[in-house]
């Protein structure tokens, strides 16, 4: 491991920093406070920007993450590459896992970005997987739930059944009522499964710990979910990237 790769939480001076969120289905990035974020077209960005530091949050394999880091080192010789770790934060946020390193870094960064001391927090990421996490008002992470995302559900049904095929790519027109053809039945069931799981998880949390204020949503399926939960929600386009700036200032 190169000497300039740091695995510690430390305060640094302001330097040109590229933040990368290496997800299962796409890569998101942010460079500087005013540059925006989106899918990372590495060929263009590697040529056009000068970077002194890269913060990488990755759920990819170690080999694929290492390959990405090597490309950064080749593009910007001497660049410092930082990886966040799941550790208690100064604001009181504490991970629930007995082995914190086994908690997905994307979940931890999302929690870190959403949590505010004194406010109970529910963070939902609806992408390749559906994850739901709860944090008490004092910062105690209570754990959460992980379920297959919409696309994985479609894929599983398509691969495991001969006569069930779901080809629709958009759920925005779907309703929660019973379907009247096989494709609609599949699409509505997948959506209803997400909504039902989230509502039941919230009910169980609030029955024991009291009300959650705003539900924080991120991921590709977050927009349509926000209109179906029947409670205040806040959409976040880049919650993992926001968390990087908190965990690795």
UniProtKB/TrEMBL annotation:
<comment type="function">
    <text>Catalyzes the phosphorylation of pantothenate (Pan), the first step in CoA biosynthesis.</text>
</comment>
<comment type="similarity">
    <text>Belongs to the type III pantothenate kinase family.</text>
</comment>
<dbReference type="GO" id="GO:0004594">
    <property type="term" value="F:pantothenate kinase activity"/>
</dbReference>
<comment type="pathway">
    <text>Cofactor biosynthesis; coenzyme A biosynthesis; CoA from (R)-pantothenate: step 1/5.</text>
</comment>
<protein>
    <recommendedName>
        <fullName>Type III pantothenate kinase</fullName>
        <ecNumber>2.7.1.33</ecNumber>
    </recommendedName>
</protein>
<dbReference type="InterPro" id="IPR004619">
    <property type="entry name" value="Type_III_PanK"/>
</dbReference>
<dbReference type="GO" id="GO:0015937">
    <property type="term" value="P:coenzyme A biosynthetic process"/>
</dbReference>
<feature type="binding site">
    <location>
        <begin position="104"/>
        <end position="107"/>
    </location>
    <ligand>
        <name>substrate</name>
    </ligand>
</feature>
<feature type="binding site">
    <location>
        <begin position="21"/>
        <end position="28"/>
    </location>
    <ligand>
        <name>ATP</name>
    </ligand>
</feature>
<feature type="binding site">
    <location>
        <position position="128"/>
    </location>
    <ligand>
        <name>ATP</name>
    </ligand>
</feature>
<dbReference type="GO" id="GO:0005524">
    <property type="term" value="F:ATP binding"/>
</dbReference>
<feature type="binding site">
    <location>
        <position position="97"/>
    </location>
    <ligand>
        <name>substrate</name>
    </ligand>
</feature>
<keyword id="KW-0547">Nucleotide-binding</keyword>
<keyword id="KW-0963">Cytoplasm</keyword>
<keyword id="KW-0630">Potassium</keyword>
<keyword id="KW-0808">Transferase</keyword>
<dbReference type="GO" id="GO:0005737">
    <property type="term" value="C:cytoplasm"/>
</dbReference>
<comment type="subunit">
    <text>Homodimer.</text>
</comment>
<keyword id="KW-0418">Kinase</keyword>
<keyword id="KW-0067">ATP-binding</keyword>
<dbReference type="Pfam" id="PF03309">
    <property type="entry name" value="Pan_kinase"/>
</dbReference>
<feature type="active site" description="Proton acceptor">
    <location>
        <position position="106"/>
    </location>
</feature>
<keyword id="KW-0173">Coenzyme A biosynthesis</keyword>
<dbReference type="InterPro" id="IPR043129">
    <property type="entry name" value="ATPase_NBD"/>
</dbReference>
<feature type="binding site">
    <location>
        <position position="182"/>
    </location>
    <ligand>
        <name>substrate</name>
    </ligand>
</feature>
């Amino acid at each position: 491991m190169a000497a300039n790769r740091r695995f510690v939480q430390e305060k640094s001076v302001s330097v040109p920093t590229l933040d990368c969120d290496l997800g299962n289905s796409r890569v998101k990035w942010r460079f500087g406070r005013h540059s925006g974020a989106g899918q990372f077209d590495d060929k263009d960005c590697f040529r056009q920007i000068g970077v002194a530091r890269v913060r990488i949050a990755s759920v990819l394999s170690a080999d694929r993450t290492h390959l990405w880091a090597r490309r950064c080192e080749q593009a910007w010789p001497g660049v410092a590459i930082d990886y966040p770790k799941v550790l208690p934060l100064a604001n009181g946020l504490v991970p629930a896992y007995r082995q914190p390193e086994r908690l997905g870094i994307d979940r931890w960064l999302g929690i870190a970005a959403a949590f505010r001391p004194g406010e109970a927090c529910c963070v939902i990421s609806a992408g390749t997987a559906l994850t739901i996490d709860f944090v008490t008002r004092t910062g105690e992470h209570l754990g959460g739930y992980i379920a297959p995302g919409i696309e994985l559900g479609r894929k599983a049904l398509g691969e495991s059944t001969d006569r069930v095929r779901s080809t629709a790519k958009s759920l925005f027109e779907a309703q929660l009522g019973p379907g009247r053809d096989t494709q609609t039945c599949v699409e509505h069931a997948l959506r209803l499964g997400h909504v039902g799981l989230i509502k039941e998880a919230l009910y169980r949390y609030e029955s024991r710990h009291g009300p959650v204020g705003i539900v924080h949503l991120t991921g590709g399926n977050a927009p349509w979910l926000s209109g179906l939960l029947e409670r205040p929600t806040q959409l976040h386009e880049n919650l993992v990237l926001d968390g990087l700036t908190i965990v690795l200032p």
